[in-house]
UniProtKB/TrEMBL annotation:
The keyword Membrane does not apply. The keyword Disulfide bond applies. InterPro entries: Frizzled/SFRP, Frizzled_dom, Frizzled_dom_sf, Netrin_domain, TIMP-like_OB-fold. Disulfide bonds join C43-C89. Residues 137-262 form the NTR domain. It holds the Pfam family Fz. This is Secreted frizzled-related protein 5. Keywords: Developmental protein, Differentiation, Disulfide bond, Wnt signaling pathway. Residues 28-159 form the FZ domain. The lineage of its organism: Eukaryota, Metazoa, Chordata, Craniata, Vertebrata.
Amino acid sequence: MKHTSQQLLALLGYLLVLGFLGVFGSYRSSSRCTHIPKSMALCYDIGYTEMRLPNLLDHETMAEAIQQSTSWLPLLARECHPDARIFLCSLFAPICLDRHIYPCRSLCEAIRSSCAPVMACYGYPWPEILNLPRASCRDCELEEPSSTKEILENFCTCDFAVKIRISRKNKTSTIADFELDSKLEVLKHGPLLKTETHPKLQQWLNLDATCVHNIMRGTNSGVYVISGEMQNGKIVVHRAYAWHKKNRNLQIAARRWKHYKCRV
């Protein structure tokens, strides 16, 4: 049984909502063990060398399993959950034992919580009842400015610029679990009112958790200067810089901004 990438997303989404995978891919006497080839980049060198076919997604042949698994590599690149690869390989390339081993409920729920926002970027609309954060479908990353002027010109074109500290609430928590330090420095207010700056930024942390995750790059806390615009009453971050001693261009720009004259 073949699935398009969109059908596969929908199918996996359905299974994750249920919270378990035991309803799928029962053991068959016709199943067989085969080596995981290098061409199956998703699961090659995962920690075991043989997989069982048909897999838990009913892929009958290795060629089919490889083709369908390839579409999931962009999801892993977004690093939505540290165990995402293990989880996906338990479906695409189940370890070759005397029976299928299904992911546990807690892992299913953790992957759903962290990766569903990113999966939405690939075309699968998740039910509103899940109340999951919305991911940024663009790859927002930390930037390395080439000059102080570049940063100042960025401040000129954006609606706001703020220096903030972001921390992960729990080292083992999901991608959405970040919080904003109560102290922040507003470099440029723009349309942001003073009383709404902190709650709007916290809202951004909750709604655009994938972007925040990319900015932090696996760290548990850090200080950043972010800038962007207001869209429909919500913050959209376009650029982010890490605040540290080595980034002298950023520190100089922050000091000069108050007296900097933007070009009209």
